Amino acid sequence: MAKQRLDKLLAGQGFGSRSQVGRMIRCGDVQVDGVTVKSPSIACDPEKETIIVAGERLFYKPFVTLMMNKPAGILSASRDNRAKTVVDLVPDALRRRDLFPAGRLDKDTTGLLILTDDGQMAHRMLSPKKGIEKVYHVRVEGTVGKEQQDRFKQGITLADGTVCLPARMDVLEEGEKPLLRVVIMEGKYHQIKRMLGMLERPVLSLKRVSIGGLLLDDSLSEGQCRELTDEEVKAIWQRSPYPIGED
Q1: 5-38: string of b/e by CB count within 10 Å (b at 16+)?
Q2: Alpha-carbon torsion 129, 110, 233, 49, what sign?
Q3: 78 and 87 in contact (C-beta within 8 Å)?
Q4: What is the pLDDT of residue 131?
Q5: Is 247 known to be catalytic?
Q6: Which of 95, 117, 127, 207 could in theory staple to 111 by disulfide, Cβ–Cβ 3.0 to 4.6 A?
């Protein structure tokens, strides 16, 4: 790989902002191949050189991909001047300068959210051509039966004339406020709320529990995140446990 400025490299690997890592370098807290360096502009190749930062060895990763259990009330954005975003919740040890949410959840929607600094991976994940199924648990107002499930199978037409692809709806808990499992392959604006609105079933709560074959880690409390393993990243491209069109 091409060499990078040391301060840019360390900032991109989560050691702090450019100014913070610059101060660390000038204070003599960084060694490259056993030699203390004090110039933030020095060029380094992290795949060929051993870099130690404040006693901690840098193990270079070109990209980072995180799973977050998103809480309600937080924006799915990289930054916002008025409200807290999901990136604000990422601990310093996992934060990268270009981290962003791959796809969005509404502010009041909870559950599985992927954050990454790999733009190519995010583009592939969000492409409608890939047909990646997303599974949600949805609490609604009003009973749900075969009529509503069949409407989902056929593909809901929204109030503005937008035609949604066929989707899947399973009833997990019956009653006046049933819990549904909804599976879609798209990500239109407020799509599930609008689809259920066409059935006169207002959404009370909405949580995403899987993307493709990747399941939300139940051990993550709301607001927590962790890095995905290579196998978990591969699972994103696999079939959902509840594929559309199959019972």
Answers
A1: bbbbbbbbbbbbeeeebbebbeeebbbbeeeebe
A2: positive
A3: yes
A4: 87
A5: no
A6: 207
How far apart, in whole angstroms, are the C-alpha atoms of residue 189 and residue 151?
Answer: 19
Does the pLDDT at position 158 exceed 90?
yes
The active-site residue out of 45, 106, 170, 217 is: 106
Q: What is the pLDDT of residues 173-219, one digit of tens each?
A: 999 999 999 999 998 889 999 999 999 999 999 999 999 999 999 99
Q: Strand, helix or coil at 152?
A: helix
Structure tokens at 95: 């934060």
Would you give the DSSP letter of residue 71? P
Task: Check if the beta carbon of residue 65 is closer than 8 Å to that of residue 230.
Answer: no
Longest dimension (CA), the chain: 71
Strand partners for 139: 179, 205
What is the phi/psi pair of residue 53, to 5°?
-120, 115
- β-pair partners for 110: 207
Q: Determine if residue 129 is left, alpha or beta; phi over 0 gives left, psi from -120 to 50 gives alpha, anything else beta.
A: alpha
159 and 195 Cβ atoms separated by less than 8 Å: no
Integer Cα distance of 242 and 181 in angstroms:
9
